[in-house]
Design a protein that fits this description.
Layout (H helix, E strand, L loop, with lengths): L28 E3 L3 E4 L11 E10 L5 E5 L6 E2 L4 E9 L2 H6 L1 E11 L4 E11 L27 E5 L4 E10 L5 E9 L14 E7 L10 E4 L11 E9 L6 E8 L12 E2 L2 E2 L7 E8 L7 E4 L1 H5 L6 E6 L2 E2 L1 E2 L9 E9 L4 E8 L7 E2 L17 E8 L5 E7 L8 E6 L7 E6 L10 E4 L14 E5 L10 E5 L8 E4 L8 E5 L5 E5 L6 E7 L1 H4 L8 E2 L5 E4 L4 E4 L3 E2 L7 E6 L5 E3 L6 E3 L9 E11 L9 E11 L13 E3 L20 E3 L6 E7 L2 E2 L2 E2 L2 E6 L5 E8 L3 E3 L6 E5 L32 E4 L12 E3 L1
Parallel strand pairs: 14-21, 38-45, 46-53
Antiparallel strand pairs: 1-3, 2-3, 3-6, 4-5, 4-7, 7-8, 9-36, 10-11, 11-12, 12-13, 14-15, 15-18, 16-17, 18-19, 20-23, 22-23, 23-24, 24-25, 26-27, 27-28, 28-29, 30-31, 31-32, 32-33, 34-35, 35-36, 37-40, 39-43, 41-44, 42-43, 44-45, 47-51, 48-49, 48-52, 48-56, 50-51, 52-54, 55-56
């Protein structure tokens, strides 16, 4: 061997190799490449279509060999002879989704001593014309779904050939859930690492809301090669146009350089040269058939233009961008990015389109230091945006180093992402220096409504440790984050979220902090059982009253009522004569049932608010019971004119029926036709004695007051007495030494003396919750 490299270096003599000879084993047979004989090259395939293909088995043995392979006409092959085999392959749904099928020739051969399996494969295109995407309404979270958090499901693992990183998630117009991520070959330039490793953007699809996932397919495929020939695609982020159904997948387009090895931009006549080998390109793939097929292009010059001279490298931040659903700039597509400046640090920038993705441009770079303490500057990294309830945008960014590290940078834009202001650190959001996600829970909720203010945020909190992922909820446009729920124990890594068509939330993560992509699904009630932005009627107390007696108004109250929406109240099961005010929810009136026994009414009150743009009803119901005492004598038909009446005086205790240590103070009403009575102590209405609506009991030493008034159709006679009172003796005055216990049976009431046709028909029980007692009425 030579002492050094180069053909002119001197030859150095090495030692002689010695050892036992090693026998060389000859192969038994070989397979030819596969030749497709039928169905190749069709414009569109269907499941069940069959490819015909041939392959040849050639014996390399000196002995006869046995042959077992699909489509082979014989079971044996003579020495050095060949045999053509013809096979068929039926196209599957997975082949259609992948866009290619793999034809396989697998042959077992044996000479009686050795058994060998030979394999050849060939990929063939299985194009299909998929249904076109269409406009669809952006999904909103469903606040009515019960709490659940599914077990973490790994949808992709690394292998001995590639690493896995950087999840992104989206919902297609047909309802499918799309998950894309980096496929990073270990034999690439950076050994399975970040750009400029020759990575590919791949995707899996779930057609059942995340329960199962289909085969891996390619969005943009990289090429492992040497300098000048390699290319790759990294860090996916979806943006969905709900107006057209088209889906965009942004990613880094790398040639020979990425952030690890000093990229740069080269301008020619003021334009970015996107073919320059050290360029970090902005790449976008788009699909008009719900993510089945993709076309790709570079938009680096459109985004940066002459500003490229100030930066060394840029990347679209992975996860998910948005479409603006409300004015101003309704319909705008937005994707966040970050650029490394030659002067140091990263700054955020917004890429946007106002023509449904035909062209793309960008706003201004976020300020390097506006709002930062003196001597400090902002250092943005992966950043995401969401739309606020007033049409502004909120930006939320990772801080990898410098001022604000282990927290999040927050800013707002009132011009659709062109300029970013009010840049500050949100101390409510501790962070692991991690890529996080912020989304709006109800994207289509009308501006100014309560649901429009609800934001969700996913990240990890421990410094430099991307574990124990949490989801937080804000219901004031991100001013505060009072609700948090840990959704992962252990490695979490990057996270990204999307609201799914059923109103649940799908979240992708890196469960080993990298090299896997995992999926979980949860609901808003997983974060909080009682959602403060959802309308909820408060409990309504049961009511006891009397047929024919006007009730005091029942006031209905609620929480989570949206002041931006009109309210409508309704009630089911009210007794005849009672009504609910549709605007205020107040229940009032006079029961007119005519029941002869005590009757219970189960009443359901419902509050419904006006539509808020989500299509999810804002409604709440409560039930309560109305117990209605009967009127034994049905009310006669009203007599014409007004009748003058004299109220009967109530009966107070006397010598024949005294108050004792065991008989509590009482008063007994004597009904009068056309008169209603009220009974109070210290201004508070009394309840009647159970089983005797005309008798009232109260405490020793108290003064009871009875008042009479005429009901409709009657007047009190001139000079008639309308009020009576009586003060009960105290226990000391009665000489009682212990607290009396009520007798097991009440003392019978004296029989009334007035007109025998006049009968007590009802006596309202004093309600316990702000209802007015109305007394007894005789008709």
């Amino acid at each position: 061997m030579r002492k050094s490299t180069g053909h002119d270096s001197p030859v150095e003599k090495t030692g002689e190799a010695v050892g036992n000879p090693v026998p060389v084993t000859t192969k038994l047979a070989k397979l030819s490449p596969i030749t497709v004989t039928s169905e190749e090259g069709k414009a569109s395939y269907s499941a069940g279509d069959q490819f015909g293909y041939d392959y040849t088995v050639t014996s390399l043995s000196k002995d006869k060999i046995s042959v077992e392979g699909e489509g082979c006409p014989a079971k044996e092959l003579d020495p050095e002879w060949s045999m053509k085999c013809s096979a068929k392959y039926a196209v599957t749904e997975e082949d259609l989704e992948r866009g290619e099928a793999e034809l396989t020739a697998k042959v077992k051969v044996s000479d009686g001593k050795r058994n060998v399996t030979l394999t050849e494969t060939k990929s063939v295109k299985t194009s299909r014309v998929w249904p076109q995407a269409k406009a669809f309404k952006t999904p909103n979270a469903d606040p009515n779904l019960a709490a659940h958090l599914t077990p973490m499901q790994v949808i992709e693992n690394n292998t001995s050939k590639y690493n896995i990183r950087i999840p992104a998630i989206a919902v297609a117009s047909n309802g499918d859930i799309l998950a894309s991520y980096d496929l990073r070959p270990l034999d690439g330039a950076w050994k399975g690492g970040d750009s400029p490793n020759e990575n590919s953007i791949v995707q899996r699809r779930s057609k059942d809301g995340g329960k199962t996932w289909g085969p891996m397919t390619y969005i943009a495929k990289g090429k492992v090669a040497g300098d000048g020939e390699r290319f790759g695609w990294s860090d996916p982020s979806y943006v969905v146009d709900h107006t057209t159904g088209e889906i965009f997948n942004f990613h880094v387009g790398s040639l020979d350089a990425g952030l690890p090895n000093n990229p740069s931009y080269h301008l020619v006549n003021g334009k970015v040269d996107e073919t320059y080998r050290r360029t970090m390109n902005f790449a976008v793939s788009s699909s008009k058939d719900n993510g089945y097929t993709w076309s790709s292009r570079l938009i680096t010059n459109d985004v940066l233009g002459e500003r490229a001279k100030d930066v060394t490298g840029c990347f679209a931040t992975s996860g998910a961008g948005i479409q603006k659903m409300h004015e101003p700039f309704k319909g705008r597509l937005l994707q966040q990015a970050a650029c490394k400046f030659k002067t140091g640090g990263f700054r955020a920038i917004t890429i946007f389109s106002d023509d449904h993705g035909k062209t793309w441009q960008s706003g201004q770079f976020a300020s390097a230091n506006a709002g930062a303490p003196a001597g400090q500057r902002w250092n943005f990294d992966e950043n995401k945006i969401a739309e606020l309830s007033d049409g502004r945008l909120i930006l939320n960014s990772r801080v990898s180093e410098g001022y604000g590290v282990y927290k999040r940078i927050v800013a707002t834009s009132s011009d659709g992402g062109v300029n970013w202001t009010d840049i500050h650190i949100d101390n409510n959001l501790p962070d692991s220096r991690n890529n996080a996600q912020i989304i709006r829970a109800f994207p289509s909720a009308n501006n100014g409504t309560l649901r429009a203010k609800v934001l969700l945020f996913s990240n990890t909190e421990k410094p430099n440790n991307r574990v124990d992922g949490k989801v937080k909820m804000s219901y004031d446009d991100g001013k505060s984050w009072p609700i948090a729920k840990q959704i992962r124990n252990g490695g979490t890594g990057y996270t990204t979220m999307a609201v799914q068509p059923d109103g649940s939330i799908g979240l992708l993560m890196e469960p080993d902090t990298w090299n896997k992509v995992g999926y979980v699904n949860f609901t808003l009630k997983t974060l909080a059982e009682n959602l403060p932005f959802e309308v909820a009627l408060e409990k309504i107390s049961d009511v006891k009253t009397t047929d024919g007696t006007p009730i005091a108004p029942i006031k209905v109250t609620s929480t989570g009522n949206d002041p931006a929406l009109a309210d409508t109240y309704s009630a089911e099961g009210l007794p005849a004569g009672l009504k609910i005010n549709a605007e205020t929810g107040q229940i009032e009136g006079t029961p007119a049932v005519g029941n002869t026994d005590v009757k219970n009414f189960d009443v359901k009150v419902t509050l419904t608010e006006a539509e808020d743009g989500t299509g999810i009803p804002r409604t709440s119901s409560q039930t309560f019971k109305v117990t209605l005492a009967p009127n034994p004598t049905p009310a006669p038909a009203p007599e014409p004119g007004v009748v003058s009446v004299v109220p009967n005086a109530p009966v107070f205790p006397d010598a024949s029926d005294p108050v004792t240590c065991t008989v509590k103070p009482f008063v007994t009403l004597q009904p009068t036709k056309g008169v209603s009575y009220s009974v109070t102590v210290d201004g508070k209405e009394l309840d009647w004695v159970e089983g005797n609506p005309s008798r009232f009991e109260y405490d020793y030493g108290k003064t009871v007051v009875v008042k009479a008034k005429a009901v409709e159709g009657f007047v009190l006679a001139k000079g008639a007495k309308t009020q009576w009172s009586w003060t009960a003796p105290t226990l000391d005055e009665l000489g009682c030494t212990t607290t009396p216990k009520p007798e097991p049976k009440p003392t019978p009431d004296p029989k009334p003396t007035p007109d025998p046709k006049s009968t007590i028909i009802a006596q309202a029980k004093a309600p316990k919750y702000n209802l007015v007692h109305t007394g007894a009425t005789v008709v």
